[in-house]
Structures are given as structure tokens and as C-alpha cells.
User: Which sequence fits this backbone?
């Protein structure tokens, strides 16, 4: 059985005042679904100490464990601060920092070595979708970004169409289902049925309280990676509740 996962990606948002939002998720976080918040690195340790039943993750890590890399943080540092997850390969990292599959794969290895689970993001651009290349792009990113050795514990995959992130545009449930079924079959083919079936698959891109329930009803959608609507408990709690209801 795959435990549902509601994951929040705060991106470059949030100062210490925002920690109260995590506290306000406490009750919703006591349901069947696991609740993860990935705040900015400056808040990771305090968010962990907040003890709201919410697990905490980073948004990126370096591929090396330590060294002369000014401004970067390592997977070990996130782990030491109390994080249990790290988001890797987000399209904003791929675009803003020119991250490619081979670097994402090296970072994932580093995260696993430090004992972190990875939320690995894949997704096509609008031009790639319009050219009917979506499944090729997703298949290539899965093959290139995920190291050997994936398990249902150390890997979560998030399908985030770039054109749906922060835009209010959401794929149809058929489009989401097509990609999620495809990702499931690719994971089963590469890692075997047992592991392939145990990796959780999240949908991300403009998930809101108003569309969460229909997205969670799609086959092979085990939860969501939520940006804007994870910043406030008043938005994220209804999404968590919808996921808890879908797990019944
Ligand atoms: P959004 O972002 O929910 O604001 O569209 C999702 C993400 O980038 O993870």
C-alpha cells in the first residue's frame, strides 16, 4: 500500500513568521496521509522543532557531501537539521540553474547516501506537449534523473507540467492519468513490479482546494506537490483533507 503524500513546496517564500502556518496544519496532518513541507533552508531546523506532525524537507541539495561550494547546502546538512526529504530536479532549478538529468541523478545519490528521501520532479513544457512529445520527455527524465537503487521509501516522483506551475492552468484528469500510468509502468519495468508499485507518484501544478479532490481520484495519483496553495494553512488544510478523504 502506498501512503498518500501531501507535499508543500514553499520555494523562496517564508520568514520565521510563516512557521505558525505549519503549526496550524497539525490537526489535518494527523490523518492517514503523510504531510510534508519544504520551506526555505533557513527555516528547516525550526520547522522540524515545531512538532506539528508534519515532516520537513529541503528544496535542493548539492551533489557533494561538503567542500568549497559557496552558497550551497549538502544533503547531510539538511539531514542534520532534521529534514527527511529533499525536492530535486524541480523545473525552476532546471531552468534557473541549468540543472540537467545527470546532475539531478548525482544529487539524488547524495541525498540517499545522507538518508534523505527524494521527491524527484519531471515535467514537459507547453511546446513539448503541443509537439506530442510529453511521454518521451517524461520517460527520458525518469531514466536520466533516477539513480539505480530506487525504493518505495527513498523515492517519490512528482509530475509537474511546467506550463501548469503557478499559472492556474491544470491538465485534464485524462492527461494526468496518462502520464501517471506511464510513469508507473516505466518504474515497474526498470525496478521490478514490487518497487515500481511502491513508489509514490504526485501531481503538481496549480493544485488548489477547488481541484484537489478530482485530481486525487485519478489512478496512480498518490498525492500532490503544491506550491502557492501550501503557503497558508487555510489553503493547504483543505487539500490535505481531500487527500485524507481519498485514502478512505
Ligand atoms: P504551484 O507550484 O502549486 O504554485 O503551481 C507547484 C510546484 O512548483 O511545485
Assistant:
Amino acid at each position: 500500500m502506498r501512503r498518500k503524500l501531501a507535499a508543500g513546496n514553499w520555494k523562496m517564500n517564508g520568514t520565521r513568521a510563516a512557521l505558525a502556518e505549519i503549526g496550524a496544519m497539525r490537526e489535518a496532518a494527523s490523518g492517514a496521509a503523510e504531510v510534508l513541507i519544504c520551506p526555505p533552508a533557513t527555516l528547516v531546523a525550526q520547522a522540524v522543532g515545531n512538532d506539528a506532525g508534519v515532516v520537513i524537507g529541503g528544496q535542493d541539495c548539492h551533489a557533494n557531501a561538503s567542500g568549497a561550494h559557496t552558497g550551497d547546502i549538502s544533503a547531510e546538512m539538511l539531514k542534520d537539521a532534521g529534514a527527511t526529504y529533499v525536492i530535486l530536479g524541480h523545473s525552476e532549478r532546471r531552468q534557473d540553474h541549468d540543472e540537467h538529468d545527470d546532475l539531478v541523478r548525482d544529487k539524488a545519490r547524495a541525498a540517499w547516501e545522507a538518508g534523505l528521501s527524494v521527491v524527484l520532479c519531471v515535467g514537459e513544457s507547453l511546446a513539448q506537449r503541443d509537439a506530442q512529445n510529453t511521454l518521451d520527455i517524461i520517460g527520458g527524465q525518469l531514466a536520466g534523473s533516477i539513480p539505480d537503487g530506487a525504493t518505495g521509501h527513498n523515492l517519490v516522483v512528482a509530475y509537474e507540467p511546467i506550463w501548469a506551475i503557478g499559472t492556474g492552468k491544470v491538465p485534464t484528469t485524462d492527461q494526468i492519468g496518462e502520464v501517471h500510468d506511464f510513469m508507473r509502468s516505466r518504474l515497474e519495468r526498470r525496478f521490478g513490479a514490487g518497487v515500481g508499485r511502491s513508489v509514490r507518484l504526485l501531481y503538481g501544478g496549480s493544485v488548489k482546494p477547488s481541484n484537489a479532490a478530482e485530481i486525487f481520484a485519478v489512478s496512480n495519483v498518490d498525492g500532490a506537490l503544491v506550491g502557492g496553495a501550501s503557503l497558508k494553512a487555510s489553503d493547504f488544510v483543505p487539500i490535505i483533507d481531500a487527500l485524507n478523504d481519498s485514502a478512505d
Q: What stands out?
A: Residues 21 and 233 are 5 Å apart (CA to CA).
